[in-house]
Amino acid sequence: MTQRHHSLRRRTLIKGLTLSAGATMLPPVLSAASTINTRKSKKVLKIAHITDVHIRPELDAPNRFRKCLKDIKKNKVDFFLNGGDTIYAADYDHIDRDRVHEQWAIWKELRSEFSEYEVHSCLGNHDMWWAAPNKQDSMYGKDYAVKQLGIPGRYYSFDKKGWHFIILDSNNDNAGSLDATQRQWLEADFARIAPGSNVLIMSHYPILGANGGKHTDHNYLTNLYYKHKDKKITCLSGHVHLLDRVVYNSVNYFCNGALSGFWWEEGNEHSAGKYWVRETPPGYAVIDLFEDGSVTNTYYSHPY
Ligand SMILES: [Zn+2]
């Protein structure tokens, strides 16, 4: 790629257009970007947002994931956010213990291959095994998935470089939604962070999105964010395997496709390309976070 294309792309990113041809190091066929960065602010973090990895033994998915990982690492990200549906599926009635084991074992092996990075994950609807013989079974439900992902709980928050990160559990009644306990926790978490804070929130289901599948309690959440409109809030999601973005009350909502594309399969009659879900190719986002709370979200498709 020529230098001219490169600089064109930088300008495109800064203007916040949705489509641009070309890339920095990778060969994406599509790159969508958005920014609310209207003035020069210092970039403080660069993160990878992968979602809907749906890792499975079939279709050479583990090796295809390895190729993605190699590309993502070239972006020199500080850490990973993993948006859920890490494994293909544990949630269906016919799934047995061996199948659940098999999928998580692949994830653990792959995870060990980028153990130099922190990965902050959230639960996806396909990550839980509900068909265990009983609720006391050590592999039943959310606790087991939390353990496999190595996260502190089904929802949690942490701070890095002046940014507050909130990881939600969307998998409740009338999914996507928060349960009453989590609402209380979230309200308290918001209340304790300083006015004007920069906040990044990740959920599996989109809180708001252009393509459906959004949180059924989106009115509650948008209202809570409005109460905290002194803060600069950006939300990330997956679940629908589609790339879109919505801005509402100055909050950004980025739905960043799916790393697995069409669950690693070739697609169907609605796929605009091989492995795509409708018009969205398989891919991942690289997100720049700035000191002033602005963000740049760029989606890189991958050909694997
Ligand atoms: Zn999914």
Task: Label this structure with key terms.
304 residues; Purple Acid Phosphatase, chain A, domain 2; 6-stranded mixed beta sheet; 6 helices; 22% strand; disordered N terminus
Structure description:
With 304 residues, the protein is of the alpha/beta class. It has a single domain, classed as Purple Acid Phosphatase, chain A, domain 2 (4-Layer Sandwich), CATH 3.60.21. 24% of the residues lie in helices and 22% in strands. The protein has six helices and twelve strands. It has a six-stranded mixed beta sheet with strand order 1-12-11-2-3-4, with helices on one face. The protein is globular and about 50 Å long. The N terminus is likely disordered. It binds zinc ion.
Would you give the CATH topology?
Purple Acid Phosphatase, chain A, domain 2
Q: What is the global morphology?
A: globular
End-to-end C-alpha gap:
20 Å
**Residues in helix, %:** 10-25%
- Can you say what the CATH homologous superfamily is? Metallo-dependent phosphatases
What strand order characterises the main sheet? Answer: 1-12-11-2-3-4
Mean pLDDT over all positions? 90
CATH class: Alpha Beta
Q: Assign the structural class, choosing from mainly alpha, mainly beta, alpha/beta, alpha+beta, or little secondary structure.
A: alpha/beta
Q: How are helices and strands ordered from N to C? A: HEEHEHEHEEHEHEEEEE
Strand content: 15-25%
The strand count comes to 12
- Tally of discrete structural domains: 1
Named CATH architecture: 4-Layer Sandwich
Alpha carbon gyration radius: 19 Å
* H/I helix tally: 6
